[in-house]
Amino acid sequence: DAGVIQSPRHEVTEMGQEVTLRCKPISGHDYLFWYRQTMMRGLELLIYFNNNVPIDDSGMPEDRFSAKMPNASFSTLKIQPSEPRDSAVYFCASSRLALRYQETQYFGPGTRLLVL
Amino acid sequence: QKEVEQDPGPLSVPEGAIVSLNCTYSNSAFQYFMWYRQYSRKGPELLMYTYSSGNKEDGRFTAQVDKSSKYISLFIRDSQPSDSATYLCAMSKANAGGTSYGKLTFGQGTILTVHP
User: Fold this and answer.
1) How far apart are CA B31 and CA B81, in angstroms?
2) Which pLDDT tens digit goes with each residue over A1-50?
3) Which residues is B36 bridged to in the sheet?
4) Which of B79, B106, B113, B114 is the most exposed, having the fewest neighbouring CB atoms within 10 Å of its CB?
5) What is the SS3 string spanning A11-74?
6) Considering only alpha carbons, which residue of chain B is nearest residue A5?
7) Interchain contact A91–B (C-beta under 8 A)
């Protein structure tokens, strides 16, 4: 399997611009997670989906952030308008239906976002 | 106060040393405990997985969970330069049936360097 695929791998943009991050989960996985990682705050869960439905978006920092999962093989995280404090590495992860004693989230390589 | 606390280090040890990594947590609802390893500029990957209390061993790695103290540990025996990475503890809650909700709360991560 190709693993979780994220694009772009790097993004540099100017403050105020719209940023769209993309994720293709592992085929057959029911859960999809979006995380943000910074030196100051570590790895934070932003939102996660189960069977394409958003389950918990309590980690989404502001209304400027939105996430969608139109089908089982694609998800987007959008920031509009972007701000310098959004600079971070954004990870997408996926997992199968949670089973007792078997819970593994597979992470993508991440998108490094720099907002100038 | 964060739900999961982890000393960010950095920790530097000579090759062959025993490494001890620790996390404390405040929420007694956590039932699943994991250790992820993250190499530089990569996504985290699952290293060890434990449900509830007890020990688990896998090769040179041993994970311990002490729920009474809300304390988890990862031991690395005979550490190797290839073990140099950031180690993240992660935890999740479970429903009444014992199934994980899938939502992970991560520690800050400990940066480990094993020098030859």
Assistant:
1) 32
2) 689 999 999 999 999 999 999 999 999 898 999 999 998 888 999 999 99
3) B46, B88
4) B113
5) EEECCCCCEEEEEECCCCCCEEEEEEEECCCEEEEEEEEECCEEEECCCCCCCCEEEEEEECCE
6) B43
7) yes
Residue A98 to residue B97, Cβ atoms within 8 A: no
pLDDT bucket at B49, cuts 50 / 70 / 90: confident
Residues of A in contact with B98 (CB under 8 A): 100
Copy the structure tokens of residue B85. Answer: 């990475």
Residues of A whose CB is below 8 A from B49: 101, 103-104
Report the amino acid identity of residue B13.
V
Closest CA to B36 of A3, A106, A99: A106
Query: Hey, which residues 60-89 in chain A have their CB within 8 Å of chain B?
Result: none
Cα of A32 vs its chain's centroid, Å = 8
Q: Chains A and B: how many Cβ contacts under 8 Å?
A: 61
